[in-house]
Amino acid sequence: MSKDLPHTRKWVSDKFLADYFGVSRCTIWRWTKSGKLPPPERLGEKTSRWDFDQAATAPLEKKSA
């Protein structure tokens, strides 16, 4: 008997995504504004976070180190 567990979202910051993609935080916001990244969820007055799974599968190329 197996039970399906609900999917747990991993919320990440603009800094985390900038490090992940090898770009600046400004680029993360620019990509968001242009629609290349999904919009973040507002978790507070000054707190925005992206769903990592959605952001990581956005049609962007990760920079090579």
Widest beta sheet: strand line-up: 1-3-2
Q: Would you identify the regions where 5 or more consecutive residues have pLDDT less than 50?
A: none
Name the overall outline.
Answer: globular
Largest sheet, in brief, is: 3 strands, antiparallel
Approximate helicity band: 25-40%
Q: What is the overall number of helices?
A: 3
Provide the β-strand percentage band: 15-25%
Separation, N- and C-terminal Cα atoms:
45 Å
| Sheet/helix structural class | alpha+beta
Order of helices and strands: EHHEEH
Can you give a write-up of this model?
With 65 residues, this protein is an alpha+beta fold. The protein has one domain (11-56). The protein is built from three helices and three strands. The protein has helices at residues 14-21, 25-34, 52-56; strands at 11-12, 41-44, 47-51. The protein has a three-stranded antiparallel β-sheet with strand order 1-3-2. A hairpin with a 2-residue loop joins strand 2 (41-44) and strand 3 (47-51). The longest helix is centred in the middle third of the chain and has 10 residues, at 25-34. The chain is globular. The relative contact order is 0.25. The model has no long low-confidence stretch (mean pLDDT 87).
Keywords:
three-stranded antiparallel β-sheet, alpha+beta, single chain, 17% strand
Topology (SSEs and partners):
Elements: E1 11-12, H1 14-21, H2 25-34, E2 41-44, E3 47-51, H3 52-56
Antiparallel strand pairs: 1-3, 2-3
